[in-house]
Amino acid sequence: MKIKCPKCKKNAELSMDFSFVKCDNCDLDMSYGEYVKFIAHNEPTYSDILGDYTGSTEGQAAGSLDEWD
Ligand SMILES: [Zn+2]
């Protein structure tokens, strides 16, 4: 399936069995586990999607705004 390449932001290909990620645009070639770590590090917005991997911090982020007032 198509996913966003973490390096060049273009279309990369995730194998059907989730074993690897490849991108023709920048020659990215890594395992899915490496891919998950890579984007978790570089793109904080992915944390929600990857909650199972990184652990959810939603509770801390939400509600904190009220306390600033
Ligand atoms: Zn790429």
Topology:
Elements: E1 2-4, E2 11-14, E3 20-23, E4 28-31, H1 32-42, H2 51-54, H3 58-61
Antiparallel strand pairs: 1-2, 2-3, 3-4
Bound molecules: zinc ion (ZN).
The site of zinc ion has 9 residues, from loops.
Q: What's a concise summary of this model?
A:
It comes from Nitrosarchaeum koreense MY1. 28% of the residues lie in helices and 22% in strands.
Please summarize the sheet with the most strands: 4 strands, antiparallel
How many domain units? 1
The end-to-end span amounts to: 45 Å
Q: Please state the structural category.
A: alpha+beta
Strand order of the largest sheet: 1-2-3-4
Protein name: Zinc-domain-containing protein
Organism: Nitrosarchaeum koreense MY1
Key phrases:
about 70 residues; alpha+beta; four-stranded antiparallel sheet; globular; binds zinc ion
Structure description:
- The chain has 69 residues and is α+β, with helices and mostly antiparallel strands.
- It has one domain (2-55).
- It contains 3 helices and 4 strands; from the N terminus they run ββββααα.
- It has helices spanning 32-42, 51-54, 58-61, and strands at 2-4, 11-14, 20-23, 28-31.
- It has a 4-stranded antiparallel sheet with strand order 1-2-3-4.
- A hairpin with a 4-residue loop joins strand 3 and strand 4.
- It starts with a strand and ends in an 8-residue tail after the last helix.
- Bound molecules: zinc ion.
- Zinc ion is lined by residues 5, 7-8, 10, 12, 23, 25-26, 28.
